[in-house]
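3.2 Worked example (two chains)
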Amino acid sequence: MKVYVSQGHEKGIGLEVFFKSCILIRKSDLQLIKLLAFKTSVIDTLTHMRLPFKILNNSVEISGINIQVEWLDQVNHSQSFTALELGMKLCEGSGVLFTLPTSKNQFPGFAGHTEYFRAFYHRPELGMFFSSPKMQVLLLSDHVPINKLSKLMTEELIYLRLKQALRTLQHWSWPTKRILVSGLNPHAGENGLIGEEDKRVTAAVKRIKAEFKLDISGPLPGDTMMLEQKSSQDLLVYLFHDQGLGVFKGLQGFIGSNITLGLPYPRFSPDHGTSFSLFGKNQADYRGCAYSLNEAVYMLKKVADGKNSSHQS
């Protein structure tokens, strides 16, 4: 079992922050990681980083450390998409997927990783979950134009995405104490004075509470919901992308993981984009990638322990 790392955009900072993270990671953990990448992109990045390196048949050696690599040669649509496809295939056997940042135009007709996963696996209930040392955020929608949100966020979709997320977190034994769910409208609709959409949230939360027997409440006003947070293990659920990520990134910076809930395997990614303007300058901050990569390795060990326990029983 491995953490399979898809290289991301060849002109982004993904490979740079990945290699910087690998230099600092424990050697025993490094053996659990395998990069899926094109030699030209790796050489380009390492040359700009001005690190001594050696390209080997199944690895790359950097400053005395050895990183396992599966070298790719034929491109399907884009380099990052080619690496992603292989990573997904390998993880379906057993493993954890770790995707380095890419741009939306690198996907054939999709707005990003989550949208592609939903279509590929026929799982519209997949959720975007963000984890950091002090905060947990779940988004019930992602890259959706604001004029389509009201129609999209039905009671059934809210219920299904909450249900899938909570099932996955429970399966992973993820530490979650309370679940706080925001409304869609300002002030959670003011009991219908500012739109009727938040009645859907009320109904979905009621169904989840009956089914899971969890401490869950909502809809709560999105602008003040954080004030209700009592612990870093409280899960803050927001109905749309910037409503949740504005809070998360504003408080946590880029020290966080973007985690997809509901796939056949765990998928992690750094909580930042490609930062094309920093490519080749050797100035990218690696801390977010290092945090997320360590979380992916920890998850791999949990998955492996679970499989061993099941086998022994």
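3.2.1 Second chain
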Amino acid sequence: MMSASIPLLIAVADYGHTAALKQGLAPIRGISAEFVDVKPIVAAYRRMVRSLEFDVCEMAAGTYMIAREAGLPVTALPVFTYRRFHHSGFVCRADAGIRTPKDLEGKKAGVRAWSVSTGIWTRGILQNEYGVDLSKITWVVDDEEHVQSLRLPPYVLQAPAGRSLAAMMAAGEIQAAFTDNAGIGRAGPPQENWKTGAAPATPYVDLFADAQKLEADWFQHTRIYPVHGLIAVRDALLEQHPWLAQALFEAFDESRTRYLEQLEAGQKVSEHDDYYRRMTAIVGDPLPYGLEANRPAIEAMIRYCRQQGLLNGSPAAEDLFV
């Protein structure tokens, strides 16, 4: 029997599709929700993985799979909080001689951490679509992995102490890197007041100059709409309250539905509104929830994690979600 007003500590970022949930306009049946504001939300992933700090927490899809295999007692809902394509966001020095993806072999490339979602997706595309041998690239990281027990491949190296990827890229010590939070666009690990969006000292060249067209074409032939964030729930709560997963899903889905209606009406809700309207023209539903609608992306993430040494097993998609 459902207990009344169970308190839950929930860490989820502010998005257009979570606004109604966090404002109480899409209440969670039987739950008294306390939303914790963690900025950047990446810091909440780390806190959840290392100390199981929250009852319900947004988490990167790759981080969730790695942590679950390592024994973290959480299970995901098929609620995906953030997603984007990944031919964009990877740049090279103009003097590095990198003209095609295969030219990355023999070079050094920077990524914040080996398990960062952007890195997993882009490396998967490089390997599976362009035949790049990831082991022939030296990948330089300047942050810790969220899951501290993760063993990295021998071609992944830690940046020298005190050296950031941004500084190494500017000096030519690495020849390519991810932008924004995944690489040279931020300072330090994901802590409160994380400084992001730092402009590079030198203009760099996009690996894929026609990224948006390539992304749309890739979706058409793979049906993969890459997932980043999902919602993880402590297993103890799911076992104690068998109705909880459905109640959470319904509330997240109601919040999502409200947002999609606002998008269709042309309302301004968040800074991502125009992005999701553009995605609608490519993928249809820009924020699909549920397992089947996201199966191509989930199975691709599992495959890429296996290929990149992030997972030992190959779990079925059904085994990862409530």
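3.3 Remarks
The chain has two domains: 6-85+225-320, 90-221.
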